[in-house]
Design a protein that fits this description.
- The complex is a heterodimer of chains A (360) and B (263).
- By secondary structure, chain A is of the alpha/beta class.
- Chain A has two domains: 33-223, 3-Layer(aba) Sandwich (Rossmann fold), CATH 3.40.50.620; 244-359, TPP-binding domain (Rossmann fold), CATH 3.40.50.1220.
- Chain A is 29% helix and 24% strand.
- Chain A is built from ten helices and 18 strands.
- In chain A, helix 5 (109-123) packs across helix 6 (134-147) and helix 7 runs parallel beside helix 10 (346-359).
- The longest helix of chain A is centred in the first third of the chain and has 17 residues, at 52-68.
- Chain A starts with 6 loop residues before the first helix and ends with a helix.
- The radius of gyration of chain B is 22 Å and the shape is globular.
- The relative contact order of chain B is 0.17.
- Classes of the chains: A alpha/beta (360), B alpha/beta (263).
- Chains A and B meet through helix 1, helix 2, helix 5, helix 6 and strand 7 of A and strand 2, helix 1, helix 3, helix 4 and strand 9 of B.
């Protein structure tokens, strides 16, 4: 819900407007913007494990920090997580702000927002990146409202423009439209990024240090309680890690034929994914859904079976090295986004393919 | 219980393929594409209706949108909401999530005392998923994101089940609170003909920036921390080599491509 930064475009306003705004800012730079320095990342952790996306963000932060000649800071909240702070130093963090408190052991919106907002207003980072996970998005939105920061969601590209501003590219309309977002007058410039969109870097020689943060939490913040945490492990092979991903779509038709997708993935030592309709059918888990509201993947090989190729799906596979699409509808949109298109009935084709690979 | 459901009318996704960018102005051409309530908006409203059936009270549905959204609010009234509020003003155009939640918070402040606010967890068009959470911050109330089950409301405490990537959690929040709902929370009811007729006589109010006592500087383009620059269509086309014919003949070619990809 909510009108957002696209509403100007949507309401048919003349698009001369955004450049006009930039020009005005050029003439009236706000001096206090200069006080904001450093590129920060929020490190998401659960039960003492760092989420992979934290390292992906750290890698982007290093790229941005080089361009701004700035330091990379990481915020880590939890309880008994000092070893993770060390891990973050090993991945190139220059300052790790470590806030430990029993109330921070499990993510809870209000205590997390308070600790992080206080840090931001105290130390004044220029840029703050967070994971676009369920919890990361919740945190980002509330912090941005509290500290009056600009916040963009689900960035696919991040860079510094020639004015030294964070240039954020975000999808709208399920990825049909991409928009560039700038945040000229407010700091920090905040952005969220989905897991898998950027690659993590390499471990480095430690050169940073851990800075312990005093934790002050108001009793009001503790009225919201996390009563239970249930972890349900996803499929054995995470699709964003796999070199080969075989995915099915609505064209699979019935559950009996789903086995062909799985058997092709098996002989290719790949992971199995699917589209939104298959999630609705319950054939795949949330973790396996590829596309705008699911995973972004970049395997060496992506095989799409019975997938029509709506934009919401294709946006999640555009970085795959090779895409092979199998669909019996010659006009399916997926063929526009594939390297090899096969207009055939997968029920006949896949058994032959699987048989061939089994022989080898 | 006083419940407010915030909704975001957006262009019908079934028609997104016909949207084009104007090559000169870079504006998105969406003429003729009607706006609809999103499936998540309807789920938020459905959950509100169920809570009202259980606990009594009334439901207001609220949107910040162009005047044409009146018909979307009318649809929400036909589904069963009691009152509709459309926050609409030229000054709101270009609002980002920060400015939008700010305007909604003013609308809710004007409306009065509430117990629960329901929103979809993200909109159809921008899909940032930020507005509900930011609205809660502006109202100074707790928020719960990604709710899949409202387990109970008793003694001023709301108990919910939320979805996260690794599984789910059970949370407790004091009321008043704001929740954002996910796709799996319920199946929205159909609108009956009776509901449509009844909706015609329900209260539907429009509030402008002046009614909400907000300064144009704090909303719209000028009140938004983020500014939209270039807009472009994503080019994802590849030159597919097409195979057809008998499966046996195609298999060898597919295997060659697979080997090449993995080599």
């Amino acid at each position: 819900m909510g009108i957002n930064y696209y509403s100007g475009l949507l309401s048919g306003q003349p698009q001369g407007t955004p450049p006009a705004i930039s020009a005005e800012i050029c003439e009236n730079p706000r001096p206090n913007l200069k006080e904001w320095k450093g590129i920060w990342v929020f490190a998401e952790q659960e039960e003492g494990c760092l989420a992979e996306v934290s390292l992906e963000l750290l890698s982007v932060a290093q790229f941005l920090a080089k361009k701004r000649t700035a330091e990379v800071g990481v915020i880590l909240l939890g309880y008994g997580v000092e070893s993770l702070a060390e891990q973050l130093l090993a991945w190139g963090a220059e300052r790790v702000f470590l806030a430990e408190h029993p109330a921070l052991e499990k993510y809870s919106t209000l205590p997390y927002v308070r600790v992080i907002s206080n840090l931001i207003t105290g130390i004044k980072p220029e840029i703050f990146l967070l994971p676009a996970t369920s919890l990361g998005s919740d945190l980002a939105a509330r912090v941005a409202a509290r500290v009056s920061a600009g916040l963009s969601a689900h960035c696919t590209h991040l860079d510094i423009n020639d004015k030294g501003e964070l240039r954020q590219v975000v999808p709208a309309f399920g990825g049909k439209v991409m928009a560039t977002i700038l945040c000229p007058k407010h700091r920090p410039q905040m952005a969220t990024v989905r897991p898998g969109v950027f690659r993590k870097g390499e471990p480095q020689k430690k050169r940073g240090m851990i800075e312990r943060v005093a934790v002050e939490i108001s009793p009001e913040d503790l009225k919201q309680k996390v009563l239970e945490v249930h972890r349900e492990k996803g499929p054995a092979r995470a699709i964003e890690e796999a070199d080969v991903v075989v995915a099915g779509g609505a064209g699979i038709g019935n559950k009996d034929d789903w086995k062909w997708v799985e058997s092709l993935a098996e002989v290719l030592n790949g992971a199995v994914g699917g589209t939104r309709p298959l999630l609705d059918e319950g054939w795949i888990c949330e973790d396996q859904m590829i596309g705008q509201s699911g995973k972004t993947i970049r395997p060496k090989l992506y095989i799409a079976i019975g997938i029509s190729g709506v934009i919401q799906h294709v946006v999640g596979i555009q970085d795959a090295k090779v895409i092979i699409a199998i669909n019996n509808d010659r006009r399916a949109a997926i063929f526009q986004s594939a390297d090899l298109g096969v207009a055939a009935d997968f029920r006949k084709l896949i058994p032959l393919l699987v048989g061939n690979f089994k022989k080898i | 219980m006083n419940i407010i459901v915030c909704v975001k009318p957006a262009p019908d996704p079934k028609r997104w393929d016909s949207m084009q960018l104007d090559p000169v102005t870079k504006a998105l051409q969406r003429e003729g594409i009607p706006s609809v309530l999103s499936p998540l908006d309807k789920r938020a409203l459905e959950e509100g209706l169920r809570l009202k059936e259980k606990h009594g009270g009334k439901i207001a549905v609220m949107a910040m949108a162009p005047p044409s959204a009146e018909e979307n609010l009318r649809e929400a009234l036909a589904m069963g909401a009691d009152e509709g509020y459309l926050l609409t003003d030229r000054a709101f155009a270009g609002s980002d999530t920060w400015a939008t939640s700010f305007v909604l918070s003013k609308g809710i402040g004007k409306w009065g005392t509430f117990d629960l606010i329901l929103c979809g967890s993200y909109s159809l068009d921008g899909s940032t998923g930020h507005v509900g959470t930011q609205l809660a911050e502006f109202l100074g109330i707790p928020n719960v994101s990604q709710v899949v089950v409202v387990e109970s409301i008793a003694g001023g405490i709301l108990r919910t089940k939320i979805l996260v990537e690794s599984g789910y959690r059970i949370l407790e929040s004091p009321l008043p609170a704001l929740i954002t709902v996910t796709r799996d929370i319920n199946t929205p009811r159909f609108t009956s003909l009776f509901g449509v007729i009844e909706a015609e006589s329900k209260l539907l109010v429009k509030w402008s920036a002046r009614d909400l006592e907000v300064s144009p500087d704090d909303v719209g383009f000028s009140g938004s921390p983020t500014q939209t620059g270039d807009v472009f269509l994503l080019e994802m086309k590849r030159q597919a080599k097409m195979l057809s014919g008998e499966p046996e003949g195609m298999v060898q070619e597919i295997i060659r491509k697979i080997r090449q990809a993995l080599g």
